[in-house]
Design goal:
Two copies of one chain form a homodimer. The first copy, chain A, has two domains: 65 residues, Orthogonal Bundle (Arc Repressor Mutant, subunit A), CATH 1.10.10.10; 170 residues, GAF domain (Beta-Lactamase, 2-Layer Sandwich), CATH 3.30.450.40. Helices cover 42% and strands 17% of the residues of chain A. In chain A, helix 1 crosses helix 3, helix 2 crosses helix 3 and helix 6 packs across helix 8. Chain A has 296 residues and is α+β, with helices and mostly antiparallel strands. The two termini of chain A are 35 Å apart. The first copy, chain A, has a six-stranded antiparallel β-sheet. A two-stranded antiparallel ribbon of chain A has the order 1-2. The radius of gyration of chain A is 22 Å and the shape is globular. Chains A and B meet through helix 1, helix 3, helix 4, strand 3 and strand 4 of A and helix 1, helix 3, helix 4, strand 3 and strand 4 of B. The structure holds a DNA duplex (30 and 30 nucleotides). Chains A, B: InterPro entries: GAF-like_dom_sf (IPR029016), HTH_MetabolicPath_Reg (IPR050707), Tscrpt_reg_IclR_C (IPR014757), Tscrpt_reg_IclR_N (IPR005471), WH-like_DNA-bd_sf (IPR036388), WH_DNA-bd_sf (IPR036390). Chains A, B: One of its GO terms (biological process) is negative regulation of DNA-templated transcription. Chains A, B: One of its GO terms (molecular function) is DNA-binding transcription factor activity.
DNA sequence: AATCTAGTTTCGCTGGGCGAAACATGCAAT
DNA sequence: ATTGCATGTTTCGCCCAGCGAAACTAGATT
């Protein structure tokens, strides 16, 4: 969130000059990606874009940063919005039942009501009904978490996840977020989308990567090659130290939705060989079986 | 959503007089409950309340009405907002990645990104980590869906749910919504909250119930009595024909969060006697075990 | 009492958001 | 082609909802 706002109250006699505000011209209206703190740019001068809504949602997102509860001050910090604005938006969200004020700490915390927003997503995804049992079965067999994910900005969100009955660590559940660039799931997803979309995404990833880009680009390219060759890719320790996983694109046969499958876990849970000879092929098979059912 | 808006463009010569607009005085700023289409009232003149945000979120909620995808027209219908407003808000939500336009149907559908909003709720709820295995175990043993839920307006949202490995029907999952007044879970929740809050809620439920209120009130009272007597309540076929369930309040020992547990399924899955002698007591026990862990 | 920190409220301004109406588009029936 | 209907977008000018600087309030700490 940046959108600076408006100058105000230049005020009486010798008030300090309010900081200069720039207004940018909009360029495009592509899918739009942006990560973290950066909406601005594209939308600054878009007459159709409603900033109040965007800001409010950005507040809800702020809680994904690992903090269970946040005060107005912290929210102002995170979102870069002025305090009064935060105050009013949190007030609104509280009235709507999406946030509640923890009397003890004086901070806000998200409520179950927010889950209701996500329900339509989960319930209308046929795959979940269909694939659920396959996921669970595969998870148990290979001892890894098996999940379906879709894109959110520069991350992949777990839409469904099955854990093997044994695994206690690495419980990434529905709604979890993994990086799109360094995870097997993310790369599989990127492989599944159209070329222009992919280029757009990679462009943003490049920007974010900075100096690491050459390395990252090569790694991504290798994953793409793997998928071309045998349908799946393996990522070992790039997304997170000591985590390895397999990814497979999941593309609706009518070209509609694009998702991705993965199977992942701590290194000790699976050798690279197992991933290559057993898990990968199984995932590919799973993907082929459910892809035709994705069409609504 | 009602908040009528502003008159405009009374316009040239003999234009039809734009409809009169009333502006209401605000009354209170209580927790606020409202269901379905009715925010208005309380907030109309609240300087702190941001309507754009509320409207935008209302659009996301509209998809909970069972429709997987909705066009701007339908959304206008449902939310009672004028078309241009809908147009802009859906545009904004699309830009933010929460909605995507299905090219085939020309309608919007919610995306996985929305799940990311709910993740903080799920991840910070310690109970989920702790109770998860108990839930699953109980679910398998009694052959019913066992869930934890919190309130959302006049419904209860499943925060966690475990299905018995056998059950294929009635898969109410995380994010599912059941009525607060006619479900065992809902009534258990109401039993758990403070008296003033409860009265407030019952007031709204009364309004919504209309002529059915006397019957409903008695049924709710009976459930309250059951909970007083033995810790749980049983509801058979009130929430939904052929569904029966047991509910238990789940109150943090520090009085913070209030949730509820339930175990439910189709009638054939459990006799009333089983619910009374086995499932109920087990749920009560579960509630007692995890309640102390609710404090953050 | 003085200083910090955290949040809320005031206040005046103004441009962001608004809806009526006009326009565009798509599809069917005539 | 034309008309009609249904759906969605864009224009346009208005104006008040929302904004942020600054003042204020409330606690906590020194």
């Amino acid at each position: 969130m940046t959108k600076t706002g408006r100058p105000q109250r230049g005020d009486g006699a010798d008030a300090p000059p309010s900081p200069k505000r720039e207004r940018k011209a909009s360029r495009s209206a592509m899918p739009l990606i942006f990560d973290d703190d950066d909406l601005s740019e594209e939308l600054s001068a878009d007459r159709k874009f409603n900033w109040s809504l965007a800001r409010g949602l950005e507040i809800l997102r702020a809680f994904s940063g690992g903090n269970a509860s946040l005060g107005n001050g912290e929210l102002a910090e995170i979102t870069k919005l002025p305090k009064p604005t935060i105050s009013r938006l949190t007030y609104t969200l509280k009235q709507l039942g999406y946030l509640q004020l923890n009397a003890r700490s004086g901070k806000f915390e998200p409520t179950p009501a927010i889950l209701a927003l996500g329900y339509p997503v989960m319930s209308t995804m046929k795959i979940r009904m269909i694939a659920r049992d396959y996921l669970q079965q595969l998870a148990n067999e290979v001892g890894l978490t098996v999940a379906i994910g879709g894109r959110d900005r520069l991350g992949m969100i777990y839409v469904d996840a099955s854990h093997p009955s044994t695994m206690m660590t690495l419980r990434l559940d529905v709604g979890s977020r993994v990086d799109i660039a360094t995870s097997a799931m993310g790369r599989s997803f990127m492989h599944g989308i159209s070329a222009p979309e992919r280029e757009l995404l990679l462009g943003v990833i490049e920007q974010r990567a900075g100096d690491d880009w050459p390395t990252l680009r090569d790694a991504i390219q290798r994953s793409f090659d793997e998928i071309d060759r045998r349908g799946f890719c393996i990522v070992d320790g790039e997304f997170q130290e000591d985590i390895r996983g397999v990814g497979v694109p999941l593309v609706a046969s009518d070209g509609g939705a694009v998702l991705a499958l993965n199977a992942a876990g701590p290194r000790f849970a699976a050798t690279l060989e197992t991933l290559e000879t057993v898990v990968g092929p199984r995932l590919v098979h799973l993907s082929r079986s459910v892809a035709p059912m994705l069409n609504r």
